[in-house]
Amino acid sequence: VTNFRPFLIFTRRQDLLDALTMARIRRWHQLVPELAECDELLVVRACTGSDVPARDAAITLLALVTGLRACDLVALRLKDIDWRGSTLGIVQQKTGNPLTLPLPAVVVGKLAEYVLGDRPHSNIPNVFLRSLAPHLALADHASIYAITRRTFRAAGATQTKAGTRKLRHHAATKLLRAGTPLPTISAILGHSSPDSTNVYLGVDTEQMRACVLPMPAGTAR
User: Fold this and answer.
1) Structural domain that includes position 9
2) Residue 46 sits in the same domain as residue 103
3) Pure H helices in the chain
């Protein structure tokens, strides 16, 4: 649109300029390439085994299963985990909205392994701490990216980027294909606008095929 405006000025089409100003141009969202099923299996197998440290495995599994943002993983506190109920209750850093998520047994198990066995002794409330002294809370999203990237490499999934954006996309896609309503997915991902969640509709190829109308008889050439 920005590149088209000078052309309209040059042609003196004020009517089109006015229409362009009033038009509501929807923001274009680039689709993130899907995480291949074979890579997912490699990562899960590595995280549930002994190839990956418990902290890194717990972070990667949380991002993979829940789609939590990196900032929420960094801010996650020990008291946010309901061990008996196998749930996670947080206030999302970006939106300020409360969120409660169920945790699969494999995620709870890896969290427990880290908290009870590998986590350095500290009064810091954050779940995930630096593995090297000083044992402070993880700094930012770059720390999470470095951890997930290292985990993917250890798992042998080296042909794909391992940022939390891709893992959020993967979690949303799996929820959508499982029949989860879009408003629920939007709440889980912490989207302030439904448009941010609608972009995932384009990756559900099975549902898209169901929307294709049959070609009327006699129109084929």
Assistant:
1) 1-30
2) yes
3) 5-10, 14-22, 37-48, 54-66, 70-75, 105-113, 141-155, 164-177, 182-189, 194-198, 205-211
Alpha-helical (H) ranges within 23-159 are 37-48, 54-66, 70-75, 105-113, 141-155
For residue 154, the domain's CATH number is 1.10.443.10
> In sequence order, which residues have a C-beta less than 8 Å from that of residue 38 and are 6 or more positions away?
none
CB 127 within 8 A of CB 81: yes
Q: Are residues 132 and 83 in the same domain?
A: yes
* pLDDT (mean) for 94-122: 95
Residue 26: pLDDT over 50: yes
What tens digit of pLDDT does each residue of 59-71 get?
999 999 998 999 9
Residues 21 and 51 in one domain: no
